[in-house]
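Colleagues,

For the teaching module next term, I've prepared a clean inverse folding example: a structure given as tokens, and then the sequence designed for it. I'd like students to try predicting residues themselves before seeing the answer, so please don't circulate the second half yet.
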């Protein structure tokens, strides 16, 4: 069964740090592009970062660059998103996604995690 399971969300203070995990089962994460997205209440799903392990590239939008680190542990079939200097505006449900042709458009992914809530308190 193909599945992505996320963990690591919760309540964080402004200025703090978070690390989210995204563990795949039923397929090899290292053969796919992993994207991270978030969605705040009443807002569109927003691109956060992408790690293209087969191409050894990663990218985050300029508004988030410098606060984001993405990496993978292929032995654990798990991808990670780290974000520092958190702000209340970072409050959202965070999703990981995987696909052979993924990019910064959420519609290009085949598999999705269940989402994990991140709440940043001021």
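(Answer key — instructors only)
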């Amino acid at each position: 069964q193909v599945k992505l399971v996320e963990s690591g969300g919760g309540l964080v203070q402004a200025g703090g740090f978070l690390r989210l995990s995204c563990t795949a089962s039923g397929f090899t994460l290292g053969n796919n592009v992993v994207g991270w997205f978030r969605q705040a209440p009443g807002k569109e799903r927003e691109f956060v970062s992408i790690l293209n392990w087969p191409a050894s590239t990663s990218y985050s939008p300029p508004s988030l660059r410098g606060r984001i680190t993405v990496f993978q542990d292929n032995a654990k079939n798990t991808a990670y998103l780290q974000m520092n200097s958190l702000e209340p505006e970072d409050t959202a449900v965070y999703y990981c996604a995987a696909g052979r042709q993924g990019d910064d458009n959420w519609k290009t992914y085949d598999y999705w995690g269940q989402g994990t809530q991140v709440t940043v308190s001021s």
